[in-house]
Specification:
binds inosinic acid, 179 residues, two-stranded antiparallel sheet, 6-stranded mixed beta sheet, 8 strands, globular, Rossmann fold, alpha/beta, binds magnesium ion
């Protein structure tokens, strides 16, 4: 992987420390609630796996898949579900787990959709946020790290389905984008 890396933006140690803090915050905020973590496939899987183990209370997990980057909104402005939830979220406290909030469009639509299904609450936890890129004003309750407007990979995030397995978040060398 070293050959592909231009620079590391968030190290493995920084991620571990921050994910533990987020887990502690969520444990405190959701005490006594019926928590359902909803991971957005595939980018959230690494964050989801680490975050859930830092939440010290009963919880349920599920995954949802929405149309991919670039064509995630259909003509009527709603998202296309590629894989729906298996659990019923009515009356439950949903926490959407995402890899990165970019324009905010995906989460804005997903939050509305899940709220419409009768969840008691629908909040968002994201590992990364790119505030400079925001187009839709979406309320994100838990943010791991703010990153600059650069394309990042690793810890679940991909470039053309590669580089998700890196244990850190980094930026690719320019030559990786050629061909
Ligand atoms: P949004 O709807 O514009 O906020 O898009 C969010 C989605 O775009 C994320 O879930 C990622 O899948 C993808 N994305 C945005 N920025 C990056 C990036 O820097 N690296 C990898 N994927 C990204
Ligand atoms: Mg994603």
């Amino acid at each position: 992987m070293k050959e592909r890396i231009e620079k590391v933006l968030v190290t493995e140690d920084e991620i571990r420390t921050r994910v533990a803090e987020l887990g502690a915050d969520i444990t405190r905020d959701y005490a006594g609630k019926d928590l359902v973590l909803v991971g957005i496939l595939k980018g959230s899987v690494v964050f989801m796996a680490d975050l859930m183990r830092q939440i010290r209370m009963p919880l349920t997990i599920d995954f949802i898949s929405v149309s991919s980057y670039g064509n995630k909104t259909s003509s009527d402005g709603t998202i296309t579900l590629l894989k729906d939830l298996a659990v019923d979220i009515r009356g439950r406290d949903v926490l959407i787990v995402e890899d990165i909030v970019d324009t905010g469009s995906t989460l804005y639509h997903l939050q509305r959709l899940l709220a419409h299904r009768g969840a008691a609450s629908v909040e968002i936890a994201t590992l990364l946020s790119k505030p400079e890129r925001r187009k839709v004003d979406v309320a994100v309750r838990y943010v791991g790290f703010e990153v600059p407007d650069e394309f990042v990979v690793g810890y679940g995030l991909d470039f053309n389905e590669h580089d998700r397995h890196w244990p850190f978040v980094g930026v690719l060398k320019p030559e990786c984008y050629q061909s």
